[in-house]
């Protein structure tokens, strides 16, 4: 038996052509595969369909297909009627009636057209199998040689190979054209600087309830309680004399700060807390404050289990222990949740005793 | 019922009274803070005694004869102490069928309640008599009159969706625990859960009464609103959508492909094999 | 790409076509007018009756094509109302649950589309469902091409184009569902931003340049919009055109069978049969999409609320085609290192960037790797049944398993709650499964394919089981086997015999080590692994002997007793390429070559 030559690649013609051993011929002229071990019985003779021989069946198929197309037209009209007649707020069997009726009529109309067309092909159109011969994907050797010659002639006439000074200076200038393309993108964004490491928290910033913006007294938070909180500068505040101070951040600036500043306050029995060295006085009577932004890829986390003290991220299931300095218990996050040192101001409300001592949120190259 | 204090203090009359027609006289419980408790509980001693009896039979095996909790040698709780959890916690846990638990498990599931309203009231009165705790909310604490649905949505998304999902369909917590679906939960139980923090749920008693009403109004709207876009597929987000896209969408289109690629019935006899 | 000019694909009907009455064609004037200006006659005469083979699996790519058309149609509708702006507005539309809230204009107009534009919600949902179907159908189409070997020469470039389409489709989908600026899409962007940051050295810069500053900024929605409606659709359109042109040029592959050879294509003409079938299929895909838009709610943005970086919802998942990447992020171990004061987040970088590169790198290189190992440089237009390429099928099954497990891991929280499992258990199990599962899948799929080969051999040699039990005079029972239809026997045996490559002997004879022999030896070893345990198809001699045996045993032409059949199984079971090539050389009648 003859093995196919594994090194046949690169020969000028279609040499390792379709069946091994018969190389060098144009594909379309190749004999069919040798019949082995069962000879090719050839294409089965055409068998007529019921619709080919029975005029009653044929007419029935015709009627069926025409009914599908007619039904589609009616459904399309029903779509238009539904569009104009059904009120936006109307409901049908608990569904929004408009969406339901429009989608149903349109969908069925389209389905009817599709089914009708395919039935036409299956039942009524001639269904004799045709044979079309293939040719090799490559052009003929002569064509290829001719085109290579044409290319050579063109290249020679241009002098691209000979006039190296012209050619190289052109290539050089084209390469430099890449620079404006890159440089122009420079204003896509400012440079990051150290903004990832900064939040609006600093000593004395009041911790307020998210949404309402109300300041928090420690006794509002029961043991096992949790408050989703934010810095006071996100909200407008009313002074004792009734003057309203507007929020410091608004619009997309607020959105940006909200990716870093949200915190959660939770209260545990002080005995349950194992503070990290140096963080012994970071709590207020068992109230501790942690960043809400996951150190994995930045989802805000507030799934805190009050009995186990675990904080679970709903995005990728990183789990942190808030009774133990926000240590990672499980999941893909590598860093503990950053803790915010808190205190109580002279009016009795919770404040940040300091800013975050490390960047909050996901890691990045310069984070260190 | 008249409010006696402005913040987090409510009269303990409410539903117990309504249900039993008994006057629980002079019993004011501090709603939230054990620290701020006034401690007095001179309610109907008969009711408390009845509750005590029920407690010894149905609850004491886990929570201890005096509701002090049973701590296992391993340090884990067999049943936590119920001193100070208040009538609201009893009402929530027993009325939603979470207590008594059928068997020790990571979490008590919601199921058909085992006690009658009178028995629950008695149990609640007994537990409330141990130490002050949140009282069963009065109907006006969860009525949605004048509540702002949009504001409730803001509170809901900030405080609740992380666990309970955007449509209140529930979600996973660590180690087999879960946040249950909110569909079909009565407003009274929602308020009780907010103020008592059942099981792993944190206590959100700091939410102002108006905030709670707004949240309830939003949840009611979510349940009432029509399915705008068709079947909500469990409201579980893109996971079920993807499943339907594959099974329903691609599944039906592959079936259509099989139909199109098949040449149908022939008039002649069927081919063998 | 121009149509071939060297050898024309001549078309001939096997049976005489139904007689066409000779009459002047309607609209001949218009045809002449057009042809005098466009000269399309030369092209049309060949293409109008172009033959396409019939098989259900050839329609899968068509689902993708038609979903893309639906995406264009519904997308244009949506773009008439959607405003890709992150400017803050107060929502005053008809959805009362959000009225009065501040939100981006993008979200507000998405709500308007859903509640204040009649039919807008239907179009939004159809657009989203069509996107899911677009990617799903591209995926199954790719799997069909992979498992049947349709990527082989001369179709490698079309395979690469297809992969590019799939990749661009994924990015296009992500850009699309990020546009409404609801809580879920914002969470997705937040995660994407976290992944960008994990790129060593330039991560923060990539993030700042993508978002026009610090996340989320006010640039990302307009930028994604341009990417979503202009850049990527343009690229997709161009690549789809190239994909289709190459399909026309190469002609469609076909399954081997009676009259179907590597040199022809047997099927039905484009006009009229495939125009009706493909055109009809477009309407069916469109109709199914519309019904899904009517009945199945997708991405209810009004329930998520506007994006707020301090909020999140349980069940925050990407659409299905990003799910496996999210699964990778969930399963990854918490690895992070610090080098000289710089941070490398392996836990984010490896799944977030590495998985995508791995998948498309392996898929893109696969045709070339297989070609090198098998040394097969010929053109192939006949498809291979997955069982006849057990090693390829095994690798495919391993890939599908790995993808599937990561995909499931992407929904681990939903799985945990729906099946009352602990999410931690699910994750730990998946961490192991994603490593072990593909290996098991490879072994099982490969053995399975080999057993099916054995089954085919049995069928050809000893026929099918008729279910008729006879008792011999000696009292033993056996089942009568009947020979299978000759055309089926042909289909089962028309695939190639495969022989592992050998190290060429010429170098040894001269006593000089030819250059590159080490490489050759590696290749020979890989090739042996590739074809190990192949069950050879029967030879002509074996078939004759089996038939003779059957007759001899007195069961007539279509009977064989059970013992004979058992012997057949044993002959089918020999192992290793060398074994069978020697057995083949015994059978003098074999004319098979590789």
Describe the protein.
The complex is a heterotrimer of chains A (368), B (273) and C (594). Helix content of chain A is 30%, strand content 14%. Chain A is α+β, with helices and mostly antiparallel strands. In chain A, the strands form five sheets. Chain A has a five-stranded antiparallel sheet, with no helix packed on it. Chain A is extended and about 95 Å long. The two termini of chain A are 66 Å apart. By secondary structure, chain B is mostly helical. Chain B has two domains: 1-139, Orthogonal Bundle (Cytochrome Bc1 Complex, Chain D, domain 2), CATH 1.10.760.10; 142-227, Orthogonal Bundle (Cytochrome Bc1 Complex, Chain D, domain 2). Chain B has ten helices and six strands. Chain B has helices at 14-20, 45-58, 60-63, 86-95, 117-130, 149-159, 161-164, 187-196, 209-224, 238-261, and strands spanning 9-11, 28-30, 70-71, 77-79, 171-172, 178-179. In chain B, the strands form three sheets. A two-stranded antiparallel sheet of chain B has the order 1-2. Chain C has a two-stranded antiparallel ribbon. In chain C, strands 3-4 form a two-stranded antiparallel ribbon. Chain C has helices at residues 28-38, 41-47, 60-79, 105-115, 120-148, 156-178, 183-197, 203-211, 220-250, 270-295, 301-304, 320-331, 346-374, 390-410, 412-418, 423-462, 486-493, 506-510, 517-531, 540-552, 562-571, 577-586; strands at residues 11-13, 51-52, 88-90, 102-104, 264-269, 337-339, 342-344, 464-471, 477-482. Among the domains of chain C are: 53-322, Up-down Bundle (Cytochrome Bc1 Complex, Chain C), CATH 1.20.810.10; 458-504 and 515-586, no CATH class. Strand 3 of chain A pairs antiparallel with strand 5 of chain C.
Annotation field: number of helices of chain B: 10
Biggest sheet layout of chain C = 2 strands, antiparallel
Strand content of chain B: 5-15%
Largest β-sheet summary of chain B: 2 strands, antiparallel
